[in-house]
Fold this sequence. Notes:
single chain, 332 residues, mainly alpha, 3-stranded parallel β-sheet, two-stranded parallel ribbon, 13 helices, 5 strands, 55% helix, globular, binds ligand 1, ligase, aminoacyl-trna synthetase, tryptophan-tRNA ligase activity
Amino acid sequence: KPRLYSGMQPSADxxxxxxxxxxxxxxxxxxxxxxxxxxxxxLHALTQPNDPGExxxxxxxxxxxxxxxxxxxxxxxxxxxxxxxxxTELAWILSTLTGFGEAGRMTQFKDKSxxxxxxATNVGLFTYPVLMAADILLYQxxxxxxxxxxxxxxxxxxxxxxxxNSRYGETFTVPMPVIQRDTAxxxxxxxxxxxxxxxxxxxxxxLGLLDAPSVTAKKIMRAVTDSEGAVRFDREAKPGVSNLLxxxxxxxxxxxxxxxxxxxxxxxxxxxxxxxxxxxxxxxxVRERALAMLDDPAELDRVLAANAERAxxxxxxxxADVYDRIGLLRRV
Length: 332
Ligand code: TYM
Protein backbone atom coordinates (compact mmCIF):
# COMPACT_ATOMS: atom_id res chain seq x y z
CA LYS A 1 0.00 0.00 0.00
CA PRO A 2 1.22 3.55 -0.66
CA ARG A 3 2.10 5.65 2.38
CA LEU A 4 0.09 8.57 3.67
CA TYR A 5 1.19 11.07 6.31
CA SER A 6 -0.57 13.97 8.01
CA GLY A 7 -0.75 15.74 11.35
CA MET A 8 -2.32 18.51 13.39
CA GLN A 9 -1.09 20.77 16.14
CA PRO A 10 -2.56 20.33 19.61
CA SER A 11 -3.09 24.05 19.83
CA ALA A 12 -6.62 24.18 21.25
CA ASP A 13 -8.92 22.17 23.49
CA UNK A 14 -11.00 21.27 20.49
CA UNK A 15 -10.35 20.83 16.78
CA UNK A 16 -12.60 23.00 14.62
CA UNK A 17 -14.80 22.29 11.63
CA UNK A 18 -12.03 23.49 9.27
CA UNK A 19 -9.72 20.78 10.62
CA UNK A 20 -12.58 18.30 10.40
CA UNK A 21 -13.71 19.02 6.83
CA UNK A 22 -10.32 20.11 5.45
CA UNK A 23 -8.36 17.19 6.90
CA UNK A 24 -9.93 14.63 9.26
CA UNK A 25 -12.75 13.55 6.93
CA UNK A 26 -10.20 12.88 4.18
CA UNK A 27 -7.95 10.98 6.59
CA UNK A 28 -10.80 8.75 7.65
CA UNK A 29 -11.70 7.87 4.06
CA UNK A 30 -8.13 7.47 2.84
CA UNK A 31 -6.90 5.26 5.68
CA UNK A 32 -8.51 2.25 3.97
CA UNK A 33 -6.37 2.43 0.86
CA UNK A 34 -3.11 3.71 2.39
CA UNK A 35 -0.58 2.74 4.99
CA UNK A 36 -1.44 5.84 6.98
CA UNK A 37 0.49 7.76 9.67
CA UNK A 38 -1.22 10.48 11.68
CA UNK A 39 0.66 12.50 14.26
CA UNK A 40 -0.23 15.00 16.94
CA UNK A 41 2.56 17.48 16.31
CA UNK A 42 3.25 18.67 19.83
CA LEU A 43 6.75 19.94 18.97
CA HIS A 44 5.26 22.25 16.36
CA ALA A 45 2.83 23.58 18.99
CA LEU A 46 5.81 24.75 21.06
CA THR A 47 6.32 27.60 18.61
CA GLN A 48 3.39 29.28 20.43
CA PRO A 49 3.40 30.02 24.17
CA ASN A 50 2.01 27.04 26.09
CA ASP A 51 1.12 26.21 29.64
CA PRO A 52 2.80 22.80 30.28
CA GLY A 53 -0.24 21.17 31.89
CA GLU A 54 -2.51 22.47 29.17
CA UNK A 55 -0.21 21.26 26.41
CA UNK A 56 -0.32 17.72 27.78
CA UNK A 57 -4.10 17.88 27.99
CA UNK A 58 -4.48 19.30 24.46
CA UNK A 59 -2.22 16.59 23.09
CA UNK A 60 -4.44 13.87 24.56
CA UNK A 61 -7.57 15.68 23.45
CA UNK A 62 -6.32 15.97 19.88
CA UNK A 63 -5.47 12.25 19.75
CA UNK A 64 -8.87 11.37 21.23
CA UNK A 65 -10.61 13.45 18.55
CA UNK A 66 -8.72 11.65 15.77
CA UNK A 67 -9.90 8.31 17.10
CA UNK A 68 -13.42 9.52 17.83
CA UNK A 69 -13.70 10.82 14.27
CA UNK A 70 -12.87 7.39 12.90
CA UNK A 71 -9.10 7.04 12.69
CA UNK A 72 -8.48 3.47 13.79
CA UNK A 73 -5.27 3.04 15.78
CA UNK A 74 -5.13 -0.64 14.89
CA UNK A 75 -5.21 0.09 11.16
CA UNK A 76 -3.42 3.45 10.97
CA UNK A 77 -0.42 4.56 13.01
CA UNK A 78 -1.60 7.37 15.27
CA UNK A 79 1.08 8.81 17.52
CA UNK A 80 2.57 11.83 19.25
CA UNK A 81 5.44 13.48 17.36
CA UNK A 82 7.70 13.96 20.40
CA UNK A 83 7.51 10.22 21.14
CA UNK A 84 9.66 9.58 18.06
CA UNK A 85 12.99 11.41 18.47
CA UNK A 86 13.96 10.87 14.81
CA UNK A 87 11.75 13.85 13.88
CA THR A 88 13.98 16.44 15.52
CA GLU A 89 17.11 14.63 14.41
CA LEU A 90 16.16 14.66 10.74
CA ALA A 91 14.93 18.26 11.07
CA TRP A 92 18.46 19.33 12.02
CA ILE A 93 19.94 17.61 8.98
CA LEU A 94 17.33 19.15 6.67
CA SER A 95 17.88 22.61 8.16
CA THR A 96 21.45 22.46 6.85
CA LEU A 97 20.02 21.98 3.34
CA THR A 98 17.47 24.79 3.61
CA GLY A 99 18.29 28.29 2.43
CA PHE A 100 17.70 31.18 4.80
CA GLY A 101 15.84 33.02 2.07
CA GLU A 102 13.91 29.91 1.16
CA ALA A 103 12.58 29.54 4.71
CA GLY A 104 11.93 33.28 4.88
CA ARG A 105 9.60 33.08 1.89
CA MET A 106 7.10 30.83 3.69
CA THR A 107 3.90 32.89 3.85
CA GLN A 108 2.79 31.41 7.17
CA PHE A 109 6.08 32.50 8.75
CA LYS A 110 5.83 35.94 7.15
CA ASP A 111 2.26 36.41 8.43
CA LYS A 112 3.03 35.25 11.95
CA SER A 113 6.29 37.13 12.34
CA UNK A 114 4.63 40.29 11.02
CA UNK A 115 1.83 39.84 13.54
CA UNK A 116 4.11 39.21 16.56
CA UNK A 117 7.05 41.48 15.69
CA UNK A 118 10.71 40.39 15.49
CA UNK A 119 11.29 40.20 19.25
CA ALA A 120 8.33 37.92 19.90
CA THR A 121 9.09 35.68 16.91
CA ASN A 122 11.09 32.62 17.91
CA VAL A 123 13.53 30.73 15.72
CA GLY A 124 11.29 27.65 15.97
CA LEU A 125 8.63 29.49 14.02
CA PHE A 126 11.20 30.04 11.28
CA THR A 127 12.35 26.41 11.13
CA TYR A 128 8.82 25.04 11.60
CA PRO A 129 8.43 23.95 7.93
CA VAL A 130 11.75 22.06 8.12
CA LEU A 131 10.42 20.00 11.05
CA MET A 132 7.28 19.40 9.03
CA ALA A 133 9.41 18.20 6.10
CA ALA A 134 11.18 15.80 8.48
CA ASP A 135 7.80 14.45 9.68
CA ILE A 136 6.79 13.63 6.14
CA LEU A 137 10.10 12.40 4.72
CA LEU A 138 10.92 10.01 7.59
CA TYR A 139 8.03 7.80 6.52
CA GLN A 140 8.81 7.67 2.76
CA UNK A 141 5.43 9.31 2.26
CA UNK A 142 3.60 9.22 -1.06
CA UNK A 143 0.67 11.54 -0.24
CA UNK A 144 -0.07 14.27 2.32
CA UNK A 145 -3.74 15.22 2.70
CA UNK A 146 -4.00 18.78 4.07
CA UNK A 147 -5.96 22.01 3.80
CA UNK A 148 -4.81 24.61 1.36
CA UNK A 149 -2.78 26.62 3.94
CA UNK A 150 -0.15 23.83 4.10
CA UNK A 151 0.51 23.62 0.37
CA UNK A 152 3.63 25.80 0.38
CA UNK A 153 5.15 23.74 3.21
CA UNK A 154 4.70 20.58 1.17
CA UNK A 155 6.34 22.23 -1.82
CA UNK A 156 9.34 22.97 0.41
CA UNK A 157 9.29 19.34 1.57
CA UNK A 158 9.43 18.17 -2.06
CA UNK A 159 12.30 20.54 -2.82
CA UNK A 160 14.28 19.29 0.18
CA UNK A 161 13.68 15.65 -0.75
CA UNK A 162 14.82 16.27 -4.33
CA UNK A 163 17.85 18.24 -3.17
CA UNK A 164 18.93 15.52 -0.76
CA ASN A 165 18.36 12.80 -3.35
CA SER A 166 20.39 14.54 -6.01
CA ARG A 167 23.24 15.28 -3.60
CA TYR A 168 23.44 11.96 -1.77
CA GLY A 169 21.55 9.46 -3.93
CA GLU A 170 17.92 8.27 -3.85
CA THR A 171 16.92 8.33 -0.20
CA PHE A 172 13.51 9.97 0.13
CA THR A 173 10.21 9.44 -1.63
CA VAL A 174 9.06 12.81 -3.00
CA PRO A 175 5.54 13.32 -1.56
CA MET A 176 2.46 14.75 -3.28
CA PRO A 177 -0.03 17.03 -1.51
CA VAL A 178 -3.69 15.99 -1.61
CA ILE A 179 -5.93 19.01 -1.31
CA GLN A 180 -9.71 18.85 -1.81
CA ARG A 181 -10.35 21.93 -3.88
CA ASP A 182 -13.86 22.74 -2.64
CA THR A 183 -13.32 22.29 1.07
CA ALA A 184 -9.66 23.18 1.49
CA UNK A 185 -10.54 26.41 3.25
CA UNK A 186 -13.38 26.87 5.71
CA UNK A 187 -13.92 30.43 6.93
CA UNK A 188 -14.73 31.98 10.28
CA UNK A 189 -18.52 32.27 10.78
CA UNK A 190 -18.21 35.79 12.17
CA UNK A 191 -15.60 36.94 9.69
CA UNK A 192 -16.22 34.88 6.56
CA UNK A 193 -13.32 36.25 4.55
CA UNK A 194 -10.79 35.02 7.16
CA UNK A 195 -9.75 31.37 7.43
CA UNK A 196 -11.22 29.63 10.47
CA UNK A 197 -8.26 29.39 12.82
CA UNK A 198 -7.52 28.32 16.37
CA UNK A 199 -5.70 31.59 16.86
CA UNK A 200 -8.75 33.80 16.15
CA UNK A 201 -9.52 36.43 18.79
CA UNK A 202 -13.06 35.27 19.46
CA UNK A 203 -14.43 31.75 19.27
CA UNK A 204 -17.93 32.89 18.27
CA UNK A 205 -17.14 32.10 14.63
CA UNK A 206 -15.36 28.79 15.28
CA LEU A 207 -17.33 25.55 15.36
CA GLY A 208 -15.52 23.22 17.76
CA LEU A 209 -15.79 19.48 17.39
CA LEU A 210 -16.16 19.29 21.17
CA ASP A 211 -18.62 22.17 21.54
CA ALA A 212 -21.90 21.26 23.26
CA PRO A 213 -24.74 20.88 20.70
CA SER A 214 -26.54 23.98 22.00
CA VAL A 215 -23.37 26.04 21.53
CA THR A 216 -22.93 24.74 17.97
CA ALA A 217 -26.52 25.65 17.11
CA LYS A 218 -26.19 29.12 18.59
CA LYS A 219 -22.98 29.86 16.68
CA ILE A 220 -24.60 28.81 13.39
CA MET A 221 -27.79 30.81 13.99
CA ARG A 222 -25.60 33.87 14.65
CA ALA A 223 -23.30 33.36 11.65
CA VAL A 224 -22.76 36.50 9.59
CA THR A 225 -24.68 36.48 6.29
CA ASP A 226 -25.89 39.42 4.16
CA SER A 227 -29.05 41.40 3.51
CA GLU A 228 -30.04 39.78 0.22
CA GLY A 229 -31.86 36.94 1.91
CA ALA A 230 -31.23 34.37 -0.82
CA VAL A 231 -29.40 31.07 -0.22
CA ARG A 232 -27.04 31.29 -3.15
CA PHE A 233 -23.34 30.51 -3.63
CA ASP A 234 -21.28 33.60 -4.48
CA ARG A 235 -17.91 33.82 -2.76
CA GLU A 236 -17.36 37.46 -3.64
CA ALA A 237 -20.74 38.96 -2.86
CA LYS A 238 -21.94 36.45 -0.24
CA PRO A 239 -18.92 34.98 1.62
CA GLY A 240 -20.95 34.07 4.74
CA VAL A 241 -23.72 32.15 3.00
CA SER A 242 -21.22 30.55 0.62
CA ASN A 243 -19.15 29.26 3.53
CA LEU A 244 -22.26 27.78 5.18
CA LEU A 245 -23.21 26.12 1.89
CA UNK A 246 -19.76 24.55 1.60
CA UNK A 247 -20.05 23.17 5.14
CA UNK A 248 -23.56 21.85 4.48
CA UNK A 249 -22.49 20.18 1.23
CA UNK A 250 -19.33 18.68 2.72
CA UNK A 251 -21.11 17.08 5.66
CA UNK A 252 -24.07 15.72 3.68
CA UNK A 253 -22.33 14.81 0.41
CA UNK A 254 -24.93 16.90 -1.43
CA UNK A 255 -24.26 19.31 -4.29
CA UNK A 256 -24.35 23.04 -3.59
CA UNK A 257 -26.73 23.54 -6.55
CA UNK A 258 -29.19 21.07 -5.01
CA UNK A 259 -29.07 22.97 -1.71
CA UNK A 260 -29.68 26.27 -3.52
CA UNK A 261 -32.76 24.72 -5.12
CA UNK A 262 -34.03 23.32 -1.86
CA UNK A 263 -33.79 26.68 -0.10
CA UNK A 264 -34.98 28.85 -3.01
CA UNK A 265 -37.55 31.33 -1.75
CA UNK A 266 -36.90 30.44 1.90
CA UNK A 267 -35.05 32.62 4.38
CA UNK A 268 -31.72 32.22 6.12
CA UNK A 269 -33.47 31.13 9.32
CA UNK A 270 -34.67 27.82 7.87
CA UNK A 271 -31.37 27.21 6.17
CA UNK A 272 -29.35 27.84 9.32
CA UNK A 273 -31.66 25.74 11.45
CA UNK A 274 -31.24 22.77 9.14
CA UNK A 275 -27.49 23.29 8.94
CA UNK A 276 -27.27 23.41 12.73
CA UNK A 277 -29.01 20.03 12.83
CA UNK A 278 -26.61 18.61 10.22
CA UNK A 279 -23.54 19.77 12.16
CA UNK A 280 -24.90 18.61 15.53
CA UNK A 281 -25.79 15.18 14.09
CA UNK A 282 -22.25 14.88 12.74
CA UNK A 283 -20.41 16.19 15.79
CA UNK A 284 -22.43 14.84 18.73
CA UNK A 285 -21.34 11.19 18.43
CA VAL A 286 -17.72 12.21 17.83
CA ARG A 287 -17.83 14.45 20.87
CA GLU A 288 -19.28 11.72 23.06
CA ARG A 289 -16.69 9.18 21.99
CA ALA A 290 -13.84 11.65 22.52
CA LEU A 291 -15.03 12.69 25.98
CA ALA A 292 -15.46 9.05 27.00
CA MET A 293 -11.90 8.29 25.92
CA LEU A 294 -10.60 11.24 27.90
CA ASP A 295 -12.17 9.74 31.01
CA ASP A 296 -9.59 6.98 30.76
CA PRO A 297 -6.35 8.72 29.79
CA ALA A 298 -4.20 5.74 30.84
CA GLU A 299 -5.75 3.56 28.13
CA LEU A 300 -5.31 6.34 25.55
CA ASP A 301 -1.65 6.74 26.59
CA ARG A 302 -1.11 3.01 26.09
CA VAL A 303 -2.54 3.14 22.57
CA LEU A 304 -0.32 6.11 21.76
CA ALA A 305 2.77 4.36 23.12
CA ALA A 306 2.18 1.22 21.06
CA ASN A 307 1.63 3.29 17.94
CA ALA A 308 4.76 5.39 18.58
CA GLU A 309 6.78 2.20 18.66
CA ARG A 310 5.48 1.25 15.21
CA ALA A 311 6.23 4.73 13.90
CA UNK A 312 9.73 4.78 15.37
CA UNK A 313 10.65 1.50 13.67
CA UNK A 314 10.00 3.10 10.27
CA UNK A 315 11.47 6.50 11.12
CA UNK A 316 14.68 5.08 12.60
CA UNK A 317 15.42 3.14 9.43
CA UNK A 318 15.20 6.29 7.31
CA UNK A 319 17.28 8.29 9.75
CA ALA A 320 20.04 5.65 9.87
CA ASP A 321 20.18 5.67 6.08
CA VAL A 322 20.40 9.49 6.04
CA TYR A 323 23.22 9.55 8.63
CA ASP A 324 25.13 7.01 6.60
CA ARG A 325 24.75 8.84 3.32
CA ILE A 326 25.85 12.21 4.62
CA GLY A 327 28.94 10.72 6.25
CA LEU A 328 28.26 10.81 9.97
CA LEU A 329 30.58 8.29 11.61
CA ARG A 330 28.58 5.31 12.76
CA ARG A 331 28.88 4.38 16.44
CA VAL A 332 30.11 0.80 16.57
P1 TYM B 1 -2.87 22.71 11.68
O1 TYM B 1 -2.78 22.07 13.00
O2 TYM B 1 -2.91 24.21 11.60
O3 TYM B 1 -4.17 22.20 10.91
C1 TYM B 1 -4.46 20.82 10.78
C2 TYM B 1 -5.11 20.53 9.43
O4 TYM B 1 -6.34 21.26 9.27
C3 TYM B 1 -6.30 22.03 8.07
N1 TYM B 1 -7.02 23.29 8.31
C4 TYM B 1 -8.05 23.72 7.58
N2 TYM B 1 -8.67 23.20 6.51
C5 TYM B 1 -9.72 23.89 5.99
N3 TYM B 1 -10.15 25.08 6.50
C6 TYM B 1 -9.56 25.64 7.56
N4 TYM B 1 -10.01 26.79 8.07
C7 TYM B 1 -8.45 24.96 8.16
N5 TYM B 1 -7.64 25.22 9.22
C8 TYM B 1 -6.78 24.19 9.31
C9 TYM B 1 -4.82 22.26 7.81
O5 TYM B 1 -4.56 22.58 6.47
C10 TYM B 1 -4.22 20.96 8.24
O6 TYM B 1 -4.33 19.99 7.21
N6 TYM B 1 1.79 22.40 9.89
C11 TYM B 1 0.56 21.67 10.09
C12 TYM B 1 0.73 20.41 10.94
C13 TYM B 1 1.77 19.47 10.45
C14 TYM B 1 1.66 18.58 9.35
C15 TYM B 1 2.87 17.84 9.34
C16 TYM B 1 0.67 18.34 8.41
C17 TYM B 1 2.99 19.24 11.02
N7 TYM B 1 3.64 18.27 10.35
C18 TYM B 1 3.10 16.87 8.36
C19 TYM B 1 0.91 17.38 7.44
C20 TYM B 1 2.12 16.65 7.43
C21 TYM B 1 -0.43 22.55 10.83
O7 TYM B 1 -0.07 23.46 11.51
O8 TYM B 1 -1.74 22.17 10.72
